[in-house]
Automatic annotation (TrEMBL), chain B:
Membrane topology: Peripheral membrane protein
A Pfam family matched in the record: ABC_tran
Annotated localization: Cell membrane
Protein name: Xylose ABC transporter ATP-binding protein
Origin superkingdom: Bacteria
InterPro entries: AAA+_ATPase, ABC_carbohydrate_import_ATPase, ABC_transporter-like_ATP-bd, ABC_transporter-like_CS, L-arabinose_ABC_transporter, P-loop_NTPase
One Gene Ontology cellular component annotation held by this UniProt entry: plasma membrane
Domain ABC transporter, first and last residues per copy: 6-243, 262-508
Source species of the chain: Nonomuraea glycinis
Keywords for this protein: ATP-binding, Cell membrane, Membrane, Nucleotide-binding, Repeat, Sugar transport, Translocase, Transport
Record GO terms (molecular function): ATP binding; ATP hydrolysis activity
Length: 328, 509
């Protein structure tokens, strides 16, 4: 009988608490930044966080699906890198047009995810190991395409990448942001309004009972890794918009950023509870830390890692309290 | 004056918003076996946690006197030091370590910082002999059954020079043989001067073993009965636990029996872990519409295995035999098939297999019948809410709303959620595996009423239960299962506990 009461937990359902904490944190960071630095408290600062992290957001959406089922996907960073490599390689070398290359890249990423998902389901391999293998495989494949950075100079591609979509009052976003937001909305819709979404939550909550409820657990697991593979590939495409290059060292360690964003967003690592909206907030918090440090100017970028580390500790502690309470 | 080894007086323990214990008094005489009885949630476990220092001194009011001294335990370590050891319902063994390592865990037999393995295994063997555990001390704990693991726990307690041994539901997970052995062991410990406190739901065991019994209800001590003195019966204890005499533990029911709904013929299932072992051996049975059929069997007889292998082959390998639904042969290869053919199976292990504990009531209710609530993959949330709200009322689920998290409900209410979930799939046949396990007496009655109602609606119900009185009180017909084989079938009028027990143990009357 544990009777921890989190702040406000009596009136707000416990499952929303982590997301609310993250939301408050984001607002607090924004307010503090606005007070300390001139030119910080503008809409464009927030929008730039989106612009700079659109690819991470997309990858984190896929990661959220996987973590909600109680799994983990370590391969996402490598798949992102592989995607930039394939895109750059095919456009720079044989000169394939983007509208052929991009679908192909998405197909490759999804297929990789599908294979990992199948292995995890059919042979009951732990997701950590299966996706660790996928991580090495995809990273290695990058170097079969080229060991150097490959620039992208396809005119359609660069034109699209450099487009600014003007909003009202001098505010602007990049097309990547739109793509990322569409992915988030579709993801949230799938999670909350479809049977697939229900199966995702149920699998993460208790896989054994989901099996006995007749839910398609195996199919769900394969599907989430496929989704994650697709999101990674799409994230790779967005990253190549952002950097206009393909390189085997791109996105190294990004799987950990994505996991951090998901966890900070309040999704339980053991699966079963969490929201995509939380993941969006998680990405924004990570992005805002970098923005604050760049405004500060005097601190090195390693401080980003230090802050992310501290934040993760706080959130893991929070999750611990939360999960001991629900488990009783 | 009697020699009391333990006196707890005026114990009050408050959790935010709830008074879990209120002025509880418990006196245990030296060298006796003292039983504590009460409904689930009455406060038995909380009381034991206060005693063993899980709730440290200062977080409760009242006084504990052990061996004539006032105690202020700050942790389990302190209470163990004083000689009080508690063995919880969920055993606390390290599964990958050997029996000997577990016995001396935290209390290692060491020489100059290094473990003395000879001494460890030798002393472990001695302790194991004392508790009647015939295994090699180096055997890994996962390789022995729950019954034997329980003995390891007791051996571990003995290694700590225990004076007062507390057992929380020690026989809940044991079959009758292991239970009997455990009770004998407790009697042996009593001979050797160890005082025992047991918390148990199994009143027949309490009657068989205890010297006195303290009944707790709603966080208060109701009474302490001396078993030798005042001819205490099960009904006497039950009336103390529930505060009212239970004339009928089972609601009256007049069955209207129709056509055959489910028939299983020559059903054989092999164990997935032990190749070649038949877990179910040529079993045949049938259930008719409107009929409640019982399946009696000891633990390990293959009851759950039979049910799960029928329900979409969720257990076992090399399954053979025929299933007939409404007289027609059907193939059931997955849980989805089973649900499609109108079968439902409510598992014996609600928490692990039956519910998603971190999810709310309405999503648990809708989980199995989601296809009926969705169109082209999209879930109709309004309909889902409406349906869940309907069950909330009709099943009398005690929770503030259908958005309450299932993990926080009591056992009885969790079971109602499980039943709602299956009723939503509109089954013709419900297989209920231990439908009242871990549920308190009042809620049991409600579950029985629901089961009767389901039968009256023309559904066929197959109930698996370890409690023979439950099968006799509820079922129109009872099958007995012994070592995977159906050894008999008795109609309600002819069934008695004795006849069933004969069939279950010997395979004949």
């Amino acid at each position: 009988m544990t009777t921890l009461t989190l702040g406000g937990g009596r009136t707000i359902p416990a499952r929303y608490v982590p997301v609310l904490v993250t939301a408050c944190l984001f607002v607090a960071m924004f307010v503090v930044g606005g007070i300390r630095y001139d030119g910080f408290a503008t809409g464009q600062v927030v929008l730039n966080v989106f612009v700079d992290n659109a690819f991470l957001l997309v990858v984190a959406v896929g990661m959220t699906f996987v973590i909600l089922t109680g799994g983990i996907d370590l391969s996402v960073g490598s798949v992102v890198a592989l995607s930039t490599m394939i895109s750059a390689g095919l456009m720079a070398g044989p000169g394939w047009p983007p509208y052929v290359v991009i679908p192909l890249v998405l197909l490759v990423g999804s297929t990789l995810g599908l294979i990992m998902g199948y292995l995890i389901h059919a042979f009951e391999i732990q997701p950590f190991i299966a996706t660790l293998a996928g991580m090495f495989l995809a990273r290695g494949l990058c170097y079969t395409i080229g060991t150097e950075s490959i620039p992208i100079d396809d005119p359609t591609f660069t034109a699209f990448a450099q487009t600014r979509i003007d909003l009202f009052a001098d505010l602007w976003i990049s097309p990547s942001v739109l793509v990322a937001l569409v992915v988030v909305l579709v993801g949230a819709y799938v999670l909350h309004y479809t049977r697939l979404g229900r199966a995702v939550y149920a699998t993460g909550g208790s896989e054994q009972s989901a099996v006995l409820m007749g839910l398609p657990v195996g199919r769900t697991k394969i599907t989430v890794y496929t989704i994650s593979g697709f999101c990674s590939a799409l994230g790779g495409v967005l990253l190549s918009f952002y950097t206009l290059s393909g390189y085997g060292l791109h996105a190294s360690g990004m799987e950990l950023d994505a996991i951090a964003a998901v966890v900070i967003g309040g999704t339980l690592l053991t699966g079963g509870t969490g929201f995509l909206f939380g993941t969006v907030l998680g990405v924004l918090v990570l992005g805002l830390i970098q923005t604050i440090l760049s405004f500060q100017g005097t601190l090195s970028s390693w401080w980003t890692k230090i802050f992310i580390g501290l934040l993760l500790f706080v959130f893991i502690l929070l999750q611990r309290l939360f999960s001991t309470r629900t488990r009783r | 004056m009697t020699d009391h080894i333990l006196r707890m007086s005026g114990i009050t323990k408050t959790f935010p918003g709830v008074k879990a214990l209120q002025d509880v008094t418990l006196s245990v005489r030296r060298g006796e076996i003292h039983a504590i009885c009460g409904e689930n949630g009455a406060g038995k476990s909380t009381l034991m946690k206060v005693l063993s220092g899980v709730y440290p001194h200062g977080t409760y009011e009242g006084e504990i006197t052990f061996e004539g001294e006032k105690c202020a335990f700050g942790s389990i370590r302190d209470s163990e030091h004083a000689g009080i050891v508690i063995i919880h319902q969920e055993l606390a063994l390290s599964p990958q370590l050997s029996i000997a390592e577990n016995i001396f865990l935290g209390n290692e037999r060491a020489k100059r910082g290094l473990i003395d393995w000879n001494r460890t295994n030798f002393e472990a063997a001695q302790l194991m002999e004392r508790v009647g555990l015939r295994e090699n001390p180096t055997t890994v704990v996962t390789d022995i059954g729950v019954g034997k693991q329980q003995l390891v726990e007791i051996a571990k307690a003995l290694s700590k020079e225990v004076k007062l041994l507390i057992l929380d539901e020690p026989t809940a997970a044991l079959n009758d043989d292991d239970s009997a052995h455990l009770l004998d062991l407790l009697r042996g410990l009593r001979e050797s001067g160890i005082t025992c406190v047991i918390i148990s739901h199994k009143l027949n065991e309490v009657i068989a073993i205890a010297d006195s019994v303290t009944i707790i209800r709603d966080g208060r001590t109701i009474e302490t009965l001396d078993m030798a003195g005042d001819g205490v019966s099960e009904d006497r204890i039950i009336s103390g636990m529930v505060g009212r005499a239970l004339d009928s533990r089972f609601p009256p029911h007049q069955p209207t029996i129709g056509e055959e709904a489910l028939r299983i013929e020559d059903w054989t299932v092999y164990s997935p872990s032990q190749p070649g072992r038949k877990v179910v051996d040529g079993a045949s049975l049938n259930v008719r519409r409107g009929e409640i059929v019982g399946l009696a069997g000891l633990m390990g007889a293959g009851r759950t295995e039979l049910a799960m292998s029928v329900f979409g082959r969720t257990y076992g390998v090399h399954i053979s035999g025929k299933i007939f639904k409404n007289g027609r042969p059907v193939e059931i290869r997955s849980v989805q098939d089973a649900i499609k053919h109108g079968l439902a199976y409510a598992t014996e292990d609600r928490k692990r297999y039956g519910l998603n504990l971190i999810e709310d009531i309405k999503r648990n209710i809708s989980a199995a019948g989601l296809s009926g609530l969705s169109r082209r993959g999209f879930v109709d949330e309004h309909e889902e809410y409406r349906v869940a709200e309907g069950f909330h009322k009709s099943m009398n689920i005690k929770a503030p709303s259908v958005s309450s998290v299932v993990g926080k409900l009591s056992g009885g209410n969790q079971q109602k959620v499980v039943l709602s979930k299956w009723i939503l799939t509109e089954p013709d046949v419900l297989i209920l595996d231990e439908p009242t396990r871990g549920i308190d007496v009042g809620a049991k009655y409600e579950i029985y009423t629901i089961i009767n109602r389901l039968a009256d609606e023309g559904k066929a119900v197959l109930v698996i239960s370890s409690e023979l009185p439950e099968l006799l009180g509820l079922c129109d017909r009872v099958y007995a299962l012994c070592e995977g084989r159906i050894t008999g079938e008795l109609p309600r009028e002819e069934a008695t506990q004795e006849r069933l027990m004969h069939l279950m143990t010997k395979g004949q009357e």
